Automatic annotation (TrEMBL):
Domain (Cytochrome c) ranges: 22-113
Protein name per the record: C-type cytochrome
Heme listed as a keyword: yes
TM region(s), chain numbering: none
Source species, domain of life: Bacteria
Keyword DNA-binding: no
Keywords linked to the UniProt accession: Heme, Iron, Metal-binding
């Protein structure tokens, strides 16, 4: 069964959510590689059906990250790579993403509208 992406281009994100030097398609691949879908349901990522963390459908429409942080590109890039540095008691672990991958992941998440 083919995977259908409703949006996979960073141009689909509003101007204020565009991630400089972020590549949404590379972000989708990084999400699959580090297995974010073990905890989250993520549209467009095969096997991303986790129920531990919140589903990430419509992430680009959210005002807050983790219910406490403003949903802005710089914050999201830091969050996806090292969430505990921003919210120490979060269940989100530090992820093995370099800065480029974190920008790419953020770019993909903003396409989820």
């Amino acid at each position: 069964m083919p995977i259908v992406l409703a949006a996979c281009n960073d141009a689909d994100a509003p101007e204020e959510q565009r991630v400089l030097e972020g590549d949404a398609e590379a972000g989708r691949a990084a999400i699959a590689e580090v297995e974010c879908g073990v905890c989250h349901r993520i549209p467009g990522v095969a096997g991303a059906n986790g129920i531990v963390g919140p589903p990430l459908d419509s992430f680009g429409r959210r005002q807050l990250i983790a219910g406490v942080l403003p949903n802005r590109p710089g914050v999201l890039v830091r969050w996806v790579s090292d969430a505990p540095s921003l919210v120490p008691n979060t269940g989100m672990p530090q992820m093995p993403l370099d800065k480029k991958q974190a920008r790419d992941v953020a770019a993909y998440l903003y396409t989820l509208r």
